[in-house]
Amino acid sequence: MSRAVFPGTFDPPTVGHLDIVTRAAAAFDELIVATGVNQSKNRLFGPQERIEMLTELVEPFPNVRIGSFEGLLVDYCRAEGAGVIVKGLRSAADYDYELQMAQLNRRMTGVDTVFLPTAPEHAFISSSWVKEIARLGGDVSTFVTPAVHTRLLNTL
Ligand code: PNS
């Protein structure tokens, strides 16, 4: 049985993340969407809220569950018995950043990374920009699900 982990900060999850979940859920027997800590990012939502948003997001997928981790991603993968990490790639800049992490993760534990190219209609969406646009009063309703949009408006 193939088990994969789709890790991210998900602060908040976007429709781009949902697209990757949809495609990875079709490609693997089991998918764990896991919230981790990117030390370089300021977070708007706390861990529990991000887990709640992700739980709502993956509700339609019977083979997807939510997890969270604080240490190394590869340690989490090993503990969960997952041999593959799934990442979405939006651009060459993503590729440069993600390639290095993928190679480090594989060297450390043998856990491999599978990249899914982001759908073109989502390629410009990022959680960071969604937060900034929303903070400054812009309309982000097409970048996130309605449930996440409501939370964003209630949190800012
Ligand atoms: O939302 P992001 O920024 O793409 O998520 C990045 C994340 C959390 C997946 C990444 O920072 C990560 O794997 N953090 C866990 C710590 C870790 O394993 N660091 C070594 C990476 S080679």
From TrEMBL:
<feature type="binding site">
    <location>
        <position position="17"/>
    </location>
    <ligand>
        <name>ATP</name>
    </ligand>
</feature>
<feature type="binding site">
    <location>
        <position position="9"/>
    </location>
    <ligand>
        <name>substrate</name>
    </ligand>
</feature>
<dbReference type="InterPro" id="IPR014729">
    <property type="entry name" value="Rossmann-like_a/b/a_fold"/>
</dbReference>
<keyword id="KW-0808">Transferase</keyword>
<dbReference type="InterPro" id="IPR004821">
    <property type="entry name" value="Cyt_trans-like"/>
</dbReference>
<feature type="binding site">
    <location>
        <position position="41"/>
    </location>
    <ligand>
        <name>substrate</name>
    </ligand>
</feature>
<keyword id="KW-0963">Cytoplasm</keyword>
<feature type="binding site">
    <location>
        <begin position="9"/>
        <end position="10"/>
    </location>
    <ligand>
        <name>ATP</name>
    </ligand>
</feature>
<feature type="binding site">
    <location>
        <position position="87"/>
    </location>
    <ligand>
        <name>substrate</name>
    </ligand>
</feature>
<dbReference type="Pfam" id="PF01467">
    <property type="entry name" value="CTP_transf_like"/>
</dbReference>
<feature type="binding site">
    <location>
        <position position="73"/>
    </location>
    <ligand>
        <name>substrate</name>
    </ligand>
</feature>
<dbReference type="InterPro" id="IPR001980">
    <property type="entry name" value="PPAT"/>
</dbReference>
<feature type="binding site">
    <location>
        <begin position="88"/>
        <end position="90"/>
    </location>
    <ligand>
        <name>ATP</name>
    </ligand>
</feature>
<feature type="domain" description="Cytidyltransferase-like">
    <location>
        <begin position="5"/>
        <end position="132"/>
    </location>
</feature>
<keyword id="KW-0067">ATP-binding</keyword>
<comment type="similarity">
    <text>Belongs to the bacterial CoaD family.</text>
</comment>
<comment type="subunit">
    <text>Homohexamer.</text>
</comment>
<feature type="binding site">
    <location>
        <position position="98"/>
    </location>
    <ligand>
        <name>ATP</name>
    </ligand>
</feature>
<comment type="pathway">
    <text>Cofactor biosynthesis; coenzyme A biosynthesis; CoA from (R)-pantothenate: step 4/5.</text>
</comment>
<keyword id="KW-0460">Magnesium</keyword>
<feature type="binding site">
    <location>
        <begin position="122"/>
        <end position="128"/>
    </location>
    <ligand>
        <name>ATP</name>
    </ligand>
</feature>
<keyword id="KW-0548">Nucleotidyltransferase</keyword>
<protein>
    <recommendedName>
        <fullName>Phosphopantetheine adenylyltransferase</fullName>
        <ecNumber>2.7.7.3</ecNumber>
    </recommendedName>
</protein>
<keyword id="KW-0173">Coenzyme A biosynthesis</keyword>
<feature type="site" description="Transition state stabilizer">
    <location>
        <position position="17"/>
    </location>
</feature>
<comment type="function">
    <text>Reversibly transfers an adenylyl group from ATP to 4'-phosphopantetheine, yielding dephospho-CoA (dPCoA) and pyrophosphate.</text>
</comment>
<dbReference type="GO" id="GO:0016779">
    <property type="term" value="F:nucleotidyltransferase activity"/>
</dbReference>
<keyword id="KW-0547">Nucleotide-binding</keyword>
